[in-house]
Automatic annotation (TrEMBL):
The lineage of its organism: Bacteria, Pseudomonadati, Bacteroidota, Flavobacteriia, Flavobacteriales. Residues 1-28 form the signal peptide. Keywords: Cell outer membrane, Membrane, Signal, Transmembrane, Transmembrane beta strand, Transport. It comes from Chryseobacterium kwangjuense. It is found in: Cell outer membrane. This is SusC/RagA family TonB-linked outer membrane protein. Pfam families: Plug. The keyword Transmembrane applies. The keyword Phosphoprotein does not apply. It is a multi-pass membrane protein. Residues 58-163 form the TonB-dependent receptor plug domain. InterPro entries: Beta-barrel_TonB_sf, Plug_dom, Plug_dom_sf, TonB-dep_OMP_SusC/RagA, TonB-dep_OMP_SusC/RagA_CS, TonB-dep_rcpt-like. Belongs to the TonB-dependent receptor family.
Amino acid sequence: MISKGLINSKAWIPPVAVFFLGIFSAHAQEVKPKKDTIREKEIDEVVVIAYGKAKRTSYTGSVATISSDKINNRPVTNITKALEGQVPGVQAVSASGQPGATASVRIRGVGSVSASSDPLYVVDGIPFDGNINSISPNDIESISVLKDATASSLYGSRGANGIIIITTKSGKKGESRINFNISQGFSDRAVKDYKQVSTDEYFQLYWEALRNGYKSGQITSQQAGQMASDNLVTALGINPYGTGFPNPVGTDGKLVPGAKALWNDDWRDILQRTASRSQVDFDISGGSEKSNYFFSLGYLDDKGIAIESGFQKFATRLKINSEVKKWLNAGVNLSYTNSIQNAPPSSDSRTDNIINAARVIPSFYPYYERNADGSYRYDADGNRIYDFGKYRPTSALQNQNAAATLPLDKNENKEDNFSGKGFLDFTFLPELKFKTSFSVDLVNYNGHYYSNPLIGQGSETGGSVTKSNSRTLSYTTSNILTFDKKLGKHHLNVLAGQEFYKYDYQTISGSRSQFSLPYYYEPDAAALLGSFSGNSDKFSLLSFLGRAEYDFNNKYFFSVSGRADGSSRFFTDNRWGKFWSIGGSWKASNEDFIKNLNVFNQLTLRASYGGQGNDKLRRPNGSSLYYAYQELYKFYNNLGEPGTVLEKIQTNDVKWETNLNLNVGLEFAVLNNRVKGNVEYFKRKSQDLLFNMPVAPSLGISDFPFNVGTIQNTGFEFSLFTTPFKNDNFQWNVDVNLSTLTNKITKLPKGSVISGTKRLEVGGSIYDFFIPEWIGVDPSNGKPLWRYIYQDANGNTVDGTTSEYAKATKTVQGSALPKVTGGVSTSVAYKNFDLSGLLTFSIGGKILDTDYTSLMSNGSAGGRAWSAEMLNRWTPENPNTDVPALSTTTNNWNSTSSRFLYSGTYARLKNVSLGYTLPSDYFERLGLKKFRIYVQAENLLTFYKHKGMDPEQALDGTTYYRYPAMRTITFGLQATL
């Protein structure tokens, strides 16, 4: 029995989570805490689910919610980035810090190989097909994440990977309100780049590489040292020490006395910057007994840390709901967004990748031309002259200077997003209602890429331009009939409906080159026609759905649902997929024997099981395949004659991928709702996987779609919400969530399937690294060693080593998938002050850092920057090391292997916010209802062992010269009239 003192509203309660003191979280309290807090009401809150709402305590499915105060005040451009660490079972990874980029979201693991694993986004009850960037975080009332079959089966194939339901704000009954939010922020790198060697260190190291490369049976070490001293400046193409030191490194490998670099131009200083972020949001809302309205305007200007990168967005929304008649409600929800993203290449190994360029050019190569004495050279107008490094080795990005070219080039993506929704809700009887709705999403995209003809790579071709346009139109119609009746202790709710979805995509693109005049960006100004292409895709989905829910005496709850989807992707014999779910829950806290314990304020046990389908097959390049069963062709110009080549064979047998989901959960609340929690176990089995089966090139095609294999995701999810202390003036909340994940392939048609650095095999995970195993450095000669498994002359298997990378044996080296992910949040409210924070973390999994390998050449890539780790290279005096000897002879030691596989465990202080709300007697004089000022930080601190790499990478665990995450400090004010 618990004493009454422990549940007194002013008591101190030492909860399980008290050790998280000092980690601050998610949301600011904007008013003084009251005895009747939202947190106490959450125990029976209404949550948004598929085609309706439900009370959390009676719902049989798995649903998690994020309220508006956890979203609205975050300086995030895209709402997917606000999901990180907020919901157990949801993995949201921001692979790019490029303003306007989205996070990759996975709910309860990866459920497919070649088909999409993206969740379905539903906005105000209707599936959303627009760019998720177009939804302003300030417009959001709440986000619900549906994770199990009961929660998402009504969306059938569209909800196979979970559902994220976004509910936008509506006006409320009463006096009209005007809300205004303005903020100004500043951004830099969230993680410092890799540490590099200095100019002095580089010249001495490269001398060593040259000497070791020259040494042979005919050339002694002393002779090689002299040759290295004589040829060092020539090999690197520059002498930053001036004409007074023609051989800055002596034959002993040390800088000669008096030699000092005349400049130190860190390219990260000129190609990256402290960026600004400006945001203004304005909305008007209100309502009466029979109608309500909400209107918003928003502007965002988010500069990137890379020069010439950024994201601008103008957004507006109008939402009106009205009771036209007692038996008819109507509503309309219109939104429009115009965005401009400036995005220089920043996500692959292209030589013009601005992130990579800032990293790989050493600081002794100047970005402005220098005289022999180190002074700047100037043009006729007195301006500094950009140095394009024609003398630089190829590895140091010869003939390139992004600081000069990017301001003259264009890398522009423009989008117009329109979304319109409307509904009519008829009440025939108090128990019988019918709702018909229509939604349309229109996305118009224009890409404009221009390389100027004056300087840089474009000058070699007279400049070039590529313009592309795409138009995506989709619409959804739904008709839902519901019957809701309560008779005594019995309650029945039945839903039946029909839905139709249509998708239409068109794109066109062309390029030209050779501009006769500079500063003209359009294709008409270029003389030579290059390429011209265009295509279109269409897709349709017809669905019928139904659900029945029954509860007895508010204690026992049962639900069953079904949906049939007809997809145009499949052949007529396999077109229809049938999906279902069953679920039940027991609200044990309503039983007398539980009530008599005086322990639980809430205790609910729930379980569900069901099947869903997935038809979202993708090509190997990631684009959608809308004609999975049809024979497809490519068209070529064969010496002026049209030619046709088979691209994909007809596959009438390809069918739906199926997801079977089991969920068992326990929800509880104790100590007068001061401690609440939820524990769930899930098992997600994906069978008949849609897969692009590779075939021999001799067949004339590269692959074909096929149903193959089974994947299983299992794990536990845990959430704990606590209020350790609360009184009239002070409240402290601490929330913790975490989830575990085990991914296993249980069935494949053959032993294994290799794709890049990954291998799929029974018993392994979907993201297992299959790469050579690094053994180390041979201490006797400094050569790299990899594992080499071979058969000797007697047929025995020998486990040995090799210094030849081509002979190295590939083996499984762990998985990219983390074992545990989660977040810790806390909020403190004292009178008119509020302080909050969010810490996210990921434990386990591995990351293949291919960015780092570019800084780890053995010396064969002369002129390319070196990591500071190269100072620990092998020498006769330092034989026990993990860095091989330097040489200009290629040894492939920085090729893909477990040497560059690092732990994926990290923690990030995702958000910290401090605010102050002026006392009412101050702002009421100004006619305000509320006035709050605040400062907040996003991505403030990152705790990670492998310095230089941002651990928040792509889901497959491989870095690829991506735009780093940004740390943003924001100052702002909020006012309500």
